[in-house]
Every structure is written in C-alpha cells, then in structure tokens.
Automatic annotation (TrEMBL):
Pathway in which the depicted protein is active: Carbohydrate biosynthesis; gluconeogenesis; Carbohydrate degradation; glycolysis; D-glyceraldehyde 3-phosphate and glycerone phosphate from D-glucose: step 2/4
EC class of the enzyme, as a word: isomerase
Protein name in UniProt: Glucose-6-phosphate isomerase
Family listed: Belongs to the GPI family.
Presence of keyword Isomerase: yes
Gene name of the encoded protein: pgi
Catalytic activity: alpha-D-glucose 6-phosphate = beta-D-fructose 6-phosphate
Length: 547
C-alpha cells in the first residue's frame, strides 16, 4: 500500500486547529498552570528511563486532541505500519525504509521483496563483533605485526555524522583506541589528521553507501597514497576495510573481499549508524555497547509502533513541532542537551531533520502551500546559555526548544551535576514564567537607584516568558538510552514527513551543487570558464589567479 497523500491543510482537523489557534495564541502558559494543578502530570509521558514533560507548551488539552485528529486524518497509523512492514515508502528512490530492521530481534521476520532480511543483518552483526573484538584485543595486527592504536573513519554525511556523534557521546565508554573522523574534501582536514598517525598501527574504515561520493573517495585515495609511502601494496589489505552497498566499486578500490562490511539500499544514509556504518562505533566502545545502542533504539521502535498516540513520545513531539511550525510560524527549533558528551547531537540531527524534511513538493508531486521542515540547531547547556540564550529569552523570534538532561552524571561529581541540573531546570522555568515589570521593579528596591534610572532600565530587564520547551529527562547517558534518544528523533522526523505529505527519505536537494562543482572542477584546467553568471565568473577567475 502506498503512503497516503493527503494535503494536511485540507483536513477537518487542520481547519479546527486554525480556529483553535486564534483562541489560544495569546494564552499565557503560567495562567494555564495556575488554572489546572494537574497540567504537569497530564502533559508528561513516563516511559522506561525517560520522562518527557511537554506541559511547558502553548497548548491546551484541546490542542493535543486536535493534533491527534490531524494524525488520524492524515493516516499516520497506517503509514507507521507501512514503514515497519517494509513497504516501498521511499517511492521517489523506489526503496523500503528499514533502519528499524537493523535493531530488530533475530527472531523477528522482516521481509524485503518476500525475503526475510534478519539472517543477513545478523550475519553482518556477527562480522562486526568478531572484527571489533580482534582489533580491540590486539589479535589483529598491522603490517609490522603491531596492534592497532588508531581508527580513522573516512566518510561524509550519514557515513560520518552518526558514527562521529555516537563515538563522541559515548566517550565515557570508550576503549584504548583513538578514533578520528575524516569527512571534508578539504585537504587540510585529511592532512591534519594524517600528521598525527602512525601507518603501522592505524586502521582505516572507508564508509560510503554508494562508494561514489567525491569527498570520501578523494580522502580514501589520499590516505592510501600516504600509506603506500610507508608500506607495500599487499599491506593495504591489513589496514583498509570498507562499509558499502557497492561491493564492486569497493573491490575495484583494492579492498580485500573479507574486509567488506555490506549494507543495504533499504537503509538511508542518515539513518545508517545502526548498520555496519556503525563499525567505528563498535571499534571505539566495543560490540557489547554498540549492541546496547541498537537494543535501546529497538525499545523506542516498539514504543513508537505500539503505543497510543497520546502517550507516544515521538508522535507527541512531532505534533507539537507541527503546531509551532505551521500555526505559530516558528521557523526553527533548538535542541539543548545538558551534557557535554552530546556536543555533536544537534549537528547530527541537522542532517536527519533537514535533509529528510526540507522538501517543498508533496507526495502528489505538487508544490506545498504550507511550511515543512524546521531549522534545527543547538549546543550543550550551560555553554549555550552564555552564547545564544539571550535571543531565546528576549529576542523577537519564537524558538521552541528541547531540553535534554540526565539525572546521573557519569563521573559522579555531585557538586557539578547539581549545578548543571539546576541550570537545566531553571532555564525552562525562566522561559515559561519570564519576569514581569512589577518583578523587575521589586528587584530594584534597596539598590539605591533613582526612580528615573529604574524607569529607564526596567523595560530592558523584563522577560516576556511564555516560551515553549519540552523537557526530556533521562536517568543516565548509556549506550541504551542514547539509542532510544536517537530513535525518538528518527520517528519524530517520520511523523512530520507523513503529516506534511512529503517524502522524507530522498535527498535530491543535494545533487545540484554536486553537479555544478564537478563541472567547475573540470573547467579549472581549461583556458576559460563557460556559462556562468557574472558573479561566479569573477570569483572563478580570481581563484585561478590566486590559487
Ligand atoms: O548528502 C547527501 C548524501 O547522499 C547523504 O544522504 C549521505 O549520507 C551522504 O551523501 C554520503 O553518501 P555515501 O554514504 O554514499 O558516501
């Protein structure tokens, strides 16, 4: 069954939401809390080690009911069923979307073109486990018979961001191997990393679903050339492994058949860290932790597909995001993790969210007449408090924010953890309540300021408040809870794509720039550049002169 293709703005629920928005847009959340003492309990979901409080949103219970009606009318339930059962829901690329199969149980049956893919998935998982154990234990050695000390992941986009984010996030669980990531085609990136490496003890993991990506192949070639300055051709087999769907191209690069970790077309690049794309994760934190990450994601999958929508974390978060994006016209969302370990989390989500839902043509092939994908950005608290929070608190834009926090620190310094978490709780409270003129004036009392000065300063010190936040409060940062968190956002992306009636799993928008870059690259050696606008032509000529 094809995905439904319903323009959400034509649904009854959308019309009701528009009318409802007019009634509630001016409501103050602090009044809603005062009127309903049960609000915080009613608007929270307690699931496993997650507590998701969405009560600090500009909503009433009717808002949620109408958003749930929207989900119903746009046939979200049926779409979830289509995704999990392996239907070709990535229609523009003619593919199934089955990253959920990668973390499913061995006993599950998931069919792709009539064939159960679970045995293949577990075969590759076994290969990842065996290889990781051999590298970590030192059993597998380099060309001078030394154990490996460094791993270099060579990939870009989904073949880099996921593994890089997870390795950074799970640093606490890391083993002795030093992990590096080379992604940018910028030669300074790869050369900077190479400077720190010893070829005798470095393992290179080339990750490219297509094995045609310019950046990855250029970096892999540069690295192989550097390696061959130290070692012999036959040593390549000991130091280079690849993850790809394109086995022929990998072999042509010179990678040993045994060193190929396959993946499948039904795994989208930005959802691929659960596949062999996660090899670097497994090498860095051990297979057991990698498997826990997958197990966490699998638990979130079960929650997502089997929980009623009003208690379904990804569904509720997606609906709230639609509420702000399409009714309040909010353009962006912030994700603020209160742990330094999640430094790369927002960057990772940028690809997941913006490459998936940055679309303006609907599933009927028509231009949409409503807003789709949100801008996503963020940095860990408390650093971000000293950077961009000013704008969230007192700027002119409405920026809904997810606050992700963990009750327990990993290193156990309670003093720091209490300070960190006091900020975590205080910020959402401050964004909710703001500070009134009367409160500002009261603060001035006893400060020995003239009435005139107080009058002058007061407007600058007032906080409007009424700024929406979700609090995602998790017991502890573990491989399993991280897996749940990532899968939560993956499903949020899916829900939004379904309701916005767009295809979330293609990414044609990245092609045009690539094509033009190839054309320009070919022109660098020509006498003249052809067919460019005046601005680009001037810049190209200047580059040619200066390079
Ligand atoms: O940015 C476009 C894209 O196709 C991403 O979707 C993908 O993750 C990335 O390029 C890398 O692709 P590959 O894994 O095929 O090298």
């Amino acid at each position: 069954m094809a995905l439904p293709s319903i323009n959400p703005t034509t649904t009854k629920a959308w019309k009701k939401l528009e009318a409802h928005f007019e009634n509630v847009k001016g409501l103050e959340m602090k009044d809603l809390f005062a009127q309903n003492k049960e609000r915080a309990n009613q608007m929270a979901i307690n699931w496993e080690d997650f507590y998701v409080d969405y009560s600090k949103n500009r909503i009433t219970s009717e808002t949620i009911n109408l958003l749930l009606e929207l989900a119903e009318e746009t046939k979200l339930k049926e779409a979830i069923q289509s995704q999990f059962s392996g239907e070709v829901i990535n229609k523009t690329e003619g593919r199934e979307v089955l990253h959920t199969a990668l973390r499913a149980k061995a006993t599950d049956t998931i069919l792709v073109e009539g064939k159960n893919v679970m045995p293949e998935i577990f075969e590759v998982k076994q290969k990842i486990e065996t290889f990781s154990n051999q590298v970590i234990s030192g059993a597998l050695k380099g060309y001078t018979n030394k154990a490996f000390t460094d791993i270099v992941n060579i990939g870009i986009g989904g073949s880099d961001l996921g593994p890089a984010m997870v390795v950074e996030s799970l640093q606490y669980y890391k083993n002795h191997l030093t992990t590096h990531f080379v992604s940018n085609v910028d030669g300074d990136h790869v050369n900077q990393v190479l400077k720190t490496l010893n070829p005798e003890t470095t393992l290179f993991v080339i990750v490219s679903k297509t094995f045609t990506t310019q950046e990855t192949l250029s970096n892999a070639n540069t690295i192989r050339t550097w390696f061959l300055e130290h070692a012999k051709q036959e040593d390549v087999a000991k130091h280079f492994v690849a993850v790809s769907t394109n086995i022929e191209k990998v072999k042509a690069f010179g990678i040993d058949q045994n060193n190929i970790f396959p993946m499948w077309n039904w795994v989208g690049g930005r959802f691929s860290l659960w596949s062999a794309v996660g090899l670097t994760i497994s090498l860095s934190v051990g297979y057991k932790n990698f498997d826990s990450l997958l197990a966490g994601a699998n638990k979130m999958d079960t929650h997502f597909k089997s929980t009623d929508f009003d208690q379904n974390i990804p569904v509720v978060l997606a609906l709230l995001s639609i509420w702000y994006n399409n009714f309040f016209n909010a353009e962006s969302e912030a994700v603020i993790p209160y742990t330094q370990y999640l430094t790369q989390f927002a960057t990772y989500l940028q690809q997941g969210i913006m490459e998936s839902n940055g679309k303006s043509v609907d599933r009927n092939g028509d231009l949409v007449n409503y807003q789709t994908g949100t801008l996503i950005w963020g940095e860990p608290g408390t650093n971000s408090q000293h950077a961009f929070f000013q704008l969230i608190h007192q700027g002119t834009k409405l920026i809904p924010a997810d606050f992700i926090g963990f009750a327990q620190s990993l290193h156990g310094n309670q003093d720091h953890q209490d300070k960190l978490m006091s900020n975590y709780f205080a910020q959402t409270e401050a964004l909710l309540n703001g500070k009134t003129k009367a409160e500002v004036e009261a603060e001035f009392e006893g400060q020995n300021l003239s009435a005139e000065k107080i009058k002058e300063l007061t407007p600058f010190k007032v906080f409007e408040g009424n700024k929406p936040t979700n609090t995602i409060f998790i017991k502890k940062l573990t491989p399993e809870s991280l897996g749940k968190l990532i899968a939560m956002y993956e499903h949020k992306i899916f829900v939004q794509g379904i309701i916005w009636n767009i295809y979330s799993y293609d990414q044609f928008g990245v092609e045009l720039g690539k094509q033009l870059a190839n054309k320009i690259l070919n022109e660098f050696d020509n006498q003249a550049f052809d067919n460019h606008d005046g601005s680009t032509l001037n810049l190209l000529n200047l580059y040619k002169k200066l390079r």
